[in-house]
Design a protein that fits this description.
Mean pLDDT: 94
Low-confidence stretches: 1-39
Oligomer: single chain
Structural class: alpha+beta
Shape: globular
Length: about 900
């Protein structure tokens, strides 16, 4: 496939930090009065775990469940039972509403369960041990019925204490940031660092039980008079759990300038707790996760392997983590010499790449380190404590988001300290400087020439990381004693793969969410259908394998994929402008989520989850003048000067949010509600415009494709969620739909002049043909399918069906309808799903036939594509593996969506 030329894809921003500051309880308001739909069929829903093993050692799980229009009202209560019919406590709340006010999505939190669970209308069972929240004192006290966590309201201590019964298991939970003010590439530099501590700015209780409680903490890292690197922390608690979960987000607001050695370089970023140590040194235990569920299992004072034997039972008990009998009962040749056995107080596991970790220990600060082993990929799990209680901790995606590290310090003293490093201080400083000096691209003309050779749209000072964010997940357990190996293994597994309940595909399809009719369960009933299913499986498997082979891992990179392959070098074009990181180009996010919606496959969900976490945080600005906009594909996720609404597109976040009720993704979606303001700051056509243009808040040029689809997805989502600005958002949805429908050429008009104050498009007096091959490939079809189902506006429907009908038409047909053809277009295979959708909605059999003709025989992948990989190895490639040099991510996303939607819409009319 030939490179796609850049069109009007630049946007600017004026919204500052909305995602970092926003907090509200979904479903807190009643829906406005609206005609109610007739009661719909609402059978019980069977929920199941994505992976085997159920909840395991995790604190709990929350799942989103959709309902057909009119099935339930927002105040509906729900009951949950297990496979034996036993009631399972559940906490339920609405997270989205249909326009008639009925319940569209409900969220359900559970803190127990291992098999399938059945959700029905009814009264929820109350947990034996409820989550309670007390805000009356100087701290916010959350009790799960097993542990109590005291959360600070100000200062630098986020978690004052974690107690189990009367035993304090951990305390002084805080955030740690190490800044390195200078970075040098030579070997003569002197490294200096300074430490910042997280300082609480605001604390909000978002939920308070009885099954689930959520506390949000916002602030910045502070040292002296300087505060920077905003953080947003959420702590999750579930009834009866001995553990809690932390979702940790930072937004980069430092300064790093290309070509300069000084700046705000992060040397270490972590979460730190103090753990009281009460037991004798030989009853203090260290557990550090290695590969799989492997563990380093040691005591601070080991009594195994000594020259004198304390007794087999004593050694076995220490290895098992059990309290040892009184030393007076041991072999006295050991007991009398205990003081001569070293006490190992410090441990460090460093994972500086996806391919290796090292583990070392020492007795205490100031003394030499001793190597303790190593391996490839550590689980990110640790434990320190003893027979009287201990603290387990874990960092999700530990090796995938390297460089990471776990530290245990001073375990031989009264207070041990554990630090989970999201960015290891042993790694190179976090270098986010732009990667080249501009190469003389000082004018727009020179920049366009650069675009024509490397596909990178460069502009000075646009390649900045200021405002990008990253979210990490951590788990903590307060154990009453050192857990048995089997329990530790469960905790490790929870860290590696956080258990997730899920509604089945048939419920999503039945509820008609995410575009009714656009996806259906996989069907191999005919050879033609089976072949397409095989191709879809091939593409997903190939990308999953490429993530591993090409090592698409790292703190800022994990979750994204590459754009285009270099067939000569046998690598993806990681260093060539717009061909490197994909940044949601042509909607691979949608391909993955639609693949999951129809299949319910756990591996696809996890891939899409990682991409959503990445693209919504790293590829989008959350602070500064470009807040609310994303960055076009490039060598660095923030490198390209095209700052666009299409990448910040709320459509890409909706799936994960509604399937899991994840609050952080909810923040991101709400932050986009006012992103129409971003069009005031930067002219997206500044490099190619020939007519004078100054952005005017009453006449902003906004395209009906990539621009409007990004805006309307945020408005629609706010309306559905009944967020704080839902009435404004609803009005924007309706007024802009009406404005597009009223244009002389509808969607084909291409763009309109938008008034920020009224939320309306001016109706043009002259018909214009302004069609781009990119307009509909950033979620427009999927959004319009939802809008047409939700809003009764026939003229809008006609305008969109006309766009669908004529994009893939002949130039003669286009000219006959609009007086002018659409020019040179691309992406016909991807647009075949528009043919299919319009064919079903209008009953046009010719369109149905054309959908399959364009799918099978236009551009993109065809039946004659190789549909296989070839082996590569040295000296051809860096590492041995496979390649499919004919695969590109643009084609994959478009083929995947077209295949899924065409099969669902026209699977009964295949040639």
């Amino acid at each position: 496939m030939s490179p796609i030329p850049r069109r009007s894809l630049l946007k600017a921003a004026a919204v500052a930090g909305a995602a970092a500051q926003f907090s509200w309880a979904p479903g807190a308001k009643d829906a406005s009065a609206a005609p109610r739909a007739e009661a719909a069929d609402a059978d019980p829903v069977t929920l199941d775990w994505l992976e085997d093993g159920g909840l395991g050692a995790a604190p709990g799980s929350t799942v989103g469940v959709p309902w057909p229009k009119g099935a339930y009202q927002p105040d509906q209560t729900f009951a949950l039972t297990d496979a034996d019919g036993k009631a399972v406590p559940v906490q339920s709340w609405p997270i989205a509403y249909w326009p008639d006010g009925s319940l569209k999505w409900s969220a359900h939190a559970v803190s127990s369960g291992s098999g399938k669970l059945t959700l029905t209308a009814g009264d929820a069972a109350a947990p034996d041990k409820k989550v309670t929240v007390d805000k009356s004192g100087g701290t916010i006290d959350v009790s799960t019925g097993v542990i109590t966590v005291k959360i600070g309201k100000d200062g630098s201590t986020l978690v004052k204490s974690v107690t189990r019964g009367s035993t304090e298991i951990a305390k002084n939970g805080r955030l740690v940031l190490i800044r390195q003010p200078e970075i040098e590439d030579e070997d003569q530099s002197t490294v200096k660092t300074e430490r910042f501590d997280g300082a609480i700015g605001e604390v909000t209780v978002e939920q308070d039980g009885p099954v689930r409680a959520v506390v949000r903490i916002d602030g910045k890292h502070r040292k002296g008079s300087r505060s920077w690197l905003p953080f947003s922390i959420r702590l999750y608690f579930y009834a009866g759990a001995d553990s809690f979960r932390m979702v940790h987000t930072i937004t980069y607001d430092g300064t790093q300038e290309p070509g300069k050695a000084s700046g705000d370089f992060i040397r270490g970023l972590g979460v730190r707790f103090t753990v009281p140590m009460r037991d004798a040194a030989y009853d203090r235990h260290i557990r550090i996760g290695g590969e799989g569920t492997g563990l380093l299992r040691e005591a601070v004072k080991g009594i195994t392997g000594l020259r004198r034997d304390p007794g087999a039972a004593v050694q076995a008990a220490q290895y098992a983590g059990q309290k040892l009998p009184d030393p007076s009962t041991w072999d006295q040749r050991v007991t009398t010499r205990l003081q001569y056995i070293p006490e190992w107080g410090d441990y460090t596991l460093s994972q500086l790449s996806a391919d290796g970790f090292t583990l070392r220990k020492r007795t205490k600060k100031g003394y030499g380190w001793i190597g303790s082993g190593g391996g490839k990929r550590a689980s990110g799990f640790g434990y320190v404590g003893g027979a009287s209680g201990g603290f387990s901790f874990g960092l999700r995606d530990f090796w995938e988001k390297h460089p990471s590290q776990l530290d245990i310090r001073d375990a031989q003293t009264d207070e041990a300290e554990v630090t989970l490093w999201l960015w290891s201080p042993e790694a190179q400083p976090m270098d986010l400087r732009f990667y080249h000096d501009g190469m003389g691209q000082d004018t727009y003309a020179e920049q366009l020439e650069g675009l024509n050779i490397t596909y990178e749209d460069y502009e000075p000072e646009f390649g900045t990381p200021y405002g990008i964010a990253r979210t990490s997940e951590l788990l903590f357990w307060a154990n009453e004693s050192t857990p048995a190996p089997e329990k530790l293994a469960q905790q490790v597994e929870a860290v590696r793969v956080l258990p997730q309940l899920a509604a089945p595909p048939r419920q999503l399809i039945k509820a008609k969410v995410f575009g009714p009719g656009l996806y259906s369960e996989p069907d191999r009933s005919t050879p033609a259908k089976a072949k397409i299913e095989d191709y879809l499986d091939f593409l997903f498997t190939y990308y999953k394998d490429q993530v591993e082979q090409r090592r698409w891992y790292g703190f800022w990179d994990y979750g994204d994929i590459m754009h285009t392959y270099d067939t000569v070098r046998h690598v993806w074009r990681y260093d060539i402008g717009g061909y490197a990181w994909d940044n949601s180009e042509l909607s691979p996010d949608l391909w993955l989520w639609f693949a999951y919606l129809r299949s319910g496959r756990a591996d696809i969900f996890r891939f899409a989850e990682a991409m959503t976490r990445h693209t919504g945080e790293v590829d989008v600005y959350h602070l500064g003048k470009w807040a609310g906009l994303g960055t076009r594909h490039g060598v660095q996720h923030f490198a390209d000067s095209a700052k666009q609404q299409r990448i910040a597109n709320t459509t890409y976040r909706r799936y994960y949010y509604f399937l899991t009720a994840d609050e952080r993704v909810g923040d991101l979606m709400h932050a986009n509600v006012d992103s129409d303001e971003t069009f005031l700051v930067l002219d997206p056509l500044r490099k190619v415009r020939t007519d004078p243009y100054t952005p005017d808040r009453h006449a902003l040029s906004i395209g009906f494709g990539t621009d409007w689809s990004g805006l309307v997805s945020a408005w629609l989502t706010e309306w559905e969620r009944k967020g704080p600005k839902w009435e404004k958002a609803k009005a924007r949805v309706l007024s802009t739909m009406e404005g597009i429908a009223a244009q002389p050429n509808g969607f084909v008009q291409g763009s309109g002049l938008y008034d920020l104050d009224t939320g309306k498009f001016a109706v043009a007096t002259t018909p214009v043909v302004g069609v781009s091959h990119l307009s509909a490939v950033f979620g427009l079809n999927e959004l319009c399918a939802e809008l047409i189902d939700l809003v009764d506006l026939p003229k809008f429907n006609e305008a969109y069906f006309d766009y669908c009908r004529y994009f893939n038409a002949t130039k003669a047909e286009q000219k006959a309808r609009y007086g002018s053809d659409f020019g040179s277009l691309l992406l016909f295979q991807g647009h075949s799903r528009l043919d299919a959708y319009a064919a079903v909605k209008t009953g046009d059999e010719a369109l149905a036939k054309r959908a399959w003709t364009k799918f099978y025989g236009s551009d993109g992948y065809t039946e004659s594509s190789p549909w296989r990989t070839e082996k590569v190895s040295g000296p051809m490639a860096l590492v041995a593996g496979s390649e499919a040099s004919w695969v590109s991510t643009n084609d994959t996303a478009l083929y995947g969506l077209a295949a899924i939607e065409n099969l669902a819409l026209l699977g009964d009319r295949m040639p």
